[in-house]
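Support request, please re-run this one:
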Amino acid sequence: MKNLIIVILSVLTFTLLGCEEIILEDESETNSTVSGNYLPTKKASEGPEVQLVEYLYPKELVENKTFYFTKVYKYAQNENSEFSAPTISQRSYTIQAINSITRITEYKDAIEQKYDDIYKDKILSYATSIPLEFPINVAKYTMVSEVIENDITKGCQVRDIGAKDLLSVLPLYVKNDLENYLQLEDEGFVFSQFNHERILHIYCGTSDDHTTDSYYSNKFGLVLKVEKDIDKDMVKVEVVDVLSVDN
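Re-run finished. Output below.
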């Protein structure tokens, strides 16, 4: 599938992507701001083309079989900026062919969260509460697609950052707490599972100071998401235990 474009709509705290697949190659962090907010700076597309479909979903996802991550850890800070104990859930995916469209559905604890329709030239993704007749169009050959919703401007930027040890991205508390959880299950546990050969980084920002950094492995799909509400000084972190694959 060549020249794929992604549009993602979600009912999560904040997810709105609309980015062409040509990715910046540089390793520098993306969190540039514009006019006092956290919208990414618009840049011309650079570097080689990247097929988004190779990153967004688990590589071993096949028809007639559900792909499971049995442990996904989610941490959230309270109003005192203290992290609570993580909630642990299951994430799973199914894939099916519908005429010329490939549909991939994502579940949390067996409850459908969203589904993606993959066409020859685009990917349209929908939360279950959003009707299909209202997709958001994406401008071609731009790194950032901005959309205004409820007077809040949202924009995203996509970069292929190559090999990445995602431990460097985890907040220290989450890293230490997660290590305790995982060592309870495996005394010989090491953090090598967070060192990936190829990572796609999608940074999103809004005009009301909310940011989301999502990291996709070209083997497992979404493996880490860090959300920050700058105005309220609060952080949410979602970490996938890739060793918990049950496929």
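The helical segments are 53-56, 172-185. The first strand starts at residue 5 and ends at 9.
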